[in-house]
Here is the input.
Amino acid sequence: MNGIIGKKIGMTSAFASDGRLVPVTVVQVGPCVVTQVKTQETDGYTALQLGFDETPVEKQNKPIAGHLKKATDKGYRVLKEFRSPSVEGVAPGTVVNLDIFSIGEKVTVTGTSKGRGFQGTIKRHGFSRGPETHGNRNHRKPGSIGNSAWPAKVIKGKRMPGHMGVEKETVKNLTVVDIKQNENLLLLKGAVPGPKTGIIKIYKTS
Here is the structure.
């Protein structure tokens, strides 16, 4: 198994193995259950689907409940897939927990960034402000956006005001500072994408 599902709890600080005080993100990791094993013969690729955050199966819709019944009699709020070069020896219902990680190991974290709402070009793209004096009124406007007679339109991909955040983000090479098996907590050095209680995927860095 090369990954697991987690929930971001928040940030604090902890002492690393060399005695330095480092900022860490606390992540509730697993336990996850293998809900589906995908093989080259049946799906065209090999992967494991994990379930996280147990919930009564009665609260699941019928398609999901029927899908999960093949592996377990419980329901899960979150289902995520992890590609794996080999799935031999792994059966539906297998429990995956913090045992796959070790202190000092490097991991990759993928999550959904915080939502920032509708933002202008200064906050969204880092544009500069306009002049503030001598009667100038162009303080935060984006400026000219189009062209002249040809092609007489705004080019696609132009950096404009719009919705910011809520995008898939990946942070690589985060160090595992501490592992708390009893509480299912993983302490990662630095920040990870998303708000508190946000769902993230943690991969072992190959």
